[in-house]
Amino acid sequence: MDRLNSSPELPVNGTGLRRDAAIALILVLVGLLVRRALTPLVGLNFPYLLFFLAVIYSAWRCNWTVSLFVMISGLLLADWFFLPPLHSFLIADNSAWFGLSGFILSSLAVIAVGQRLQRQNLLLQNELSERLSIERDLREIAQFPNQNPSPVMRVSSDGKLLYANPSSSSLLVEWKTAVGQPVPPEVQSWLAHVLKTNQPSELEQTLAGRIYTFTAAPFPESGYVNLYSQDITHRRAAEEAQARTLRESEFRFRMMADASPAMIWTSDEQQLRTWFNAAWMEFVGRKSKEEAGKGWMENIHPDDLDRCNEILSFAFNARQPFEMEYRLRHHRGDFRWILDRGTPFYDQKQKFTGYVGSCVDVHDRHLHQKELEFEVRERTSQLQATVAELESFSYSIAHDMRAPLRAMHGFGKILMQEAGPKLDAPHREFLRRIISAANRLDMLIQDVLNFSRISRCDLPIERIELQPFIHDILVSYPDFAPTRAKIEIDGKLPAVMANGAALTQVISNLLGNAVKFVASGVFPHVRISSKTDGNLATISVHDNGIGIEHDACHRIFQMFQRLHRADLYEGTGIGLAIVRKAVERMGGSVSVESELGKGSTFRVVLQLAEAQ
Amino acid sequence: MNRRAILLVEDDENDVFFFQRALSQLGLPAPHIVRDGAQAIDYLNGVAPFDDRSRFPFPAVIFLDLNLPQKHGLEVLKSIRQNADWATLPVIVLTSSSSELDVTVSYRLGANSFFVKPTDPDQLTDLLKVVVQHWFKWSELPPASPSSPAPDSEGRVE
């Protein structure tokens, strides 16, 4: 009863219920029609009879709402059609009330019973289907060992075979047994042990060339052991083949490694060396036991040991390849330089398993390198000494050689001023020549100094705006004054990368030449222009001078090259050498284009400050 | 006139001649002359043979050559600047060297000017005219203190 009450609501099957409700209502109507048809026979007796049948049907098939609806409609129809006064819902007398109450009570009773029966029926059905499904599952499960492609057996505590699945048949043939008969003695004693210890156990047996594994699961309280077997013949063969391949490849690797002149080693994931090839062992001349682990490091030169440890642990922690040079003690006792390269090693599953390394004896190379370094140092210091000598030489030129020259020039000039008028004309000419020679030698010395300064000083490169730069040069040299020459700048000059002091020398020398080398009586006219190309600027200095013979163009940039007699055009023959040296030191180039009698164009190419 | 004394430190007798000639052309008194660096320090210290301050007055300006025997001009300059009493003495370097290094070091050691000796004696006259005018006519010179405690032979005062 509890179960009935506790089930809250009958599961509603929509379509079925609607159909049954329709049938119940039809029954009510049919009951009304049949009862009316029977009226001539039975008069007004049994007004509820047929409606009651409809109530019974609905109680049996439908839920209580429909049943109550059927009951009430039957009640109203019976009252209207069959209870006097007819065609009214009035109740005439007590007997009518009695009949009506009887109908209601019996209908309610029927509905209540019907509902309960329905619930019970449903529960029974559920239980039944559940049982059926359990049975099906049980049958399936019972099939489970039978469907196992591997042998499954059960052996009783006294060693008799209780059960064997179909896959066990060939095994049973080898065991010469069947269900109900004892298993072989050796299996019996093993199973007895398993039962005694109550621990699962495994056994391997080779029967007629096939390898079987057995797993025994003991159930002492039930008095049997379950045996699960598997034929591992193929798997074992594959494993052995793989192991053999591995052994062979390792053997080959060792053969190769031993044949190699390089010293080869392996280490494990703990940074401990596990193996060395023959070359290594021969080098150190120790037992492999002594070298293993960190033993090999005992032979590293003490001065190199800390560095090696540092490199090794750094590389090891980062799992990075490493390369290091150190001195290793040879078995003769001397240390030799070794180049050791290690690479981290990963197995097929990408698991880090250590390092593999190889070493080369670089001792001779190392010594050679040391010798070379020594030689380079030696030569560098020699060169430095030479440069220092040259510097002191040029210093002494500046200082000491110019002093007597100044005296020659000074006294000559004083003599000319004070005694000149008293001298004969030829003697005055001699004196003039002495002064002018001294003057020229002084200029020469100054130019040589300039050249050597340009050649060896640091020339820091900076951004130089050419327009104001050239303008400053023009106003600071008397030779470039408008009274002496016409110098024009065509267009806007760019900014270049150059050294200020060096560029001053370049521009002033070029302009100086341009205004100097003109035919007599010609007013110098110089044009400065520029052109840019990529990140280069070409600055051109074009003059209306005497020009240069084509053949001479290539040698005018050399030291002491003069094309003209000193009495025609004075100069040292160093100016253009200074120009070329200065331009080259600033990473540029200089060239000339000229035709005799038609002027010259000197072009200087420098880096632009900003690429166009 | 003592306040206007000029000391020339110069070993080349030709240059000494040009210098004296230029000064006389400008109508200035003859300079006091020492021929090497050690003498220059002795002169400033007023030790023999320069112990008579009436004949060898403490200079108002020094013209100093660099390439000197005994004691290099730069050493002399250094000694002068290290001596507290001489530190304000105007020192004008007049040398043949135009080396950038000499220029830089001289100024760094406290030279007041650096001139390269002109080749032409007339240019020297022009130069000295400007310099002497600068120092004697327009500049306020530091008060001289010749009665300083005697420094050691290196020109240093402890």
Keywords:
heterodimer, A: 612 residues, alpha+beta, 5-stranded antiparallel sheet, 17 strands, 53% helix, elongated, disordered N terminus, B: 158 residues, alpha/beta, 5-stranded parallel sheet, 13% strand, globular, disordered C terminus
Fold and architecture overview:
The complex is a heterodimer of chains A (612) and B (158). Chain A is an alpha+beta fold and 612 residues long. Chain A is 53% helix and 19% strand. A five-stranded antiparallel beta sheet of chain A has the order 2-1-5-4-3. In chain A, 24% of the residues are buried. Chain B is an alpha/beta fold and 158 residues long. In chain B, 38% of the residues lie in helices and 13% in strands. Chain B contains five helices and five strands; from the N terminus they run βαβαβαβαβα. Chain B has helices spanning 13-25, 37-45, 73-82, 100-109, 121-138; strands at residues 6-9, 32-34, 61-64, 91-95, 113-116. A five-stranded parallel beta sheet of chain B has the order 2-1-3-4-5. In chain B, strand 1 (6-9), helix 1 and strand 2 form a beta-alpha-beta unit. Classes of the chains: A alpha+beta (612), B alpha/beta (158). The interface between A and B is medium-sized, with 21 and 18 residues.
Biggest sheet architecture of chain B: 5 strands, parallel
Number of strands of chain A: 17
Helix content of chain A: 40-55%
Q: Which stretches of chain A of 5+ consecutive residues score pLDDT under 50?
A: 1-9
Q: What overall form of chain A do the CA principal axes indicate?
A: elongated
**Can you give the helix content of chain B as a percent range?**
25-40%
How many angstroms does the end-to-end distance of chain B come to?
32 Å
Order of helices and strands of chain B: EHEHEHEHEH
* Coarse structural class of chain B: alpha/beta
Which geometry of chain B do the CA atoms define?
A: globular
Report Rg of chain A. Answer: 62 Å
**Poorly predicted segments of chain B:** 147-158
Largest interface: A-B, 21 and 18 residues
Number of strands of chain B: 5
* Percentage of β-strand residues of chain A: 15-25%
Distance between the termini of chain A: 104 Å
Strands of the widest sheet of chain B, in order across it, are 2-1-3-4-5
**Strand numbers in spatial order across the main sheet of chain A:** 2-1-5-4-3
The portion of residues forming beta strands of chain B comes to 5-15%
